[in-house]
Amino acid sequence: QVQVAESGGGLVQAGGSLRLSCAASGSVSSINYMGWYRQTPGNQRELVAGIFSSGRTDYADSVKGRSTISRDNAKNTVYLQMNSLKPEDTAVYYCHIRRGAYMYWGQGTQVTVSS
Prior knowledge:
The chain is mainly beta.
């Protein structure tokens, strides 16, 4: 089992920045992917950004150029730095971890961007 602990959400004004953190604990060997998804009411959860164990990263078009995902392997932690935030970035952000055939989700952290 992998335990997922998220932090860093909150309220920020448009144009501001936030950094989300997600720490994995437990059976962390062989984690091959860590990423962030987000969800708004009535909509499906969507990818924001992800990073593979190889270092390859993926970003949603909506956040490219404004966000950076990084991973500290020693701490089993992934970070999402979000800049130039927009009201449409408002959502619950979920950390997502893949370990082999297994997937894990965090409980979610609210990000609210005021105009």
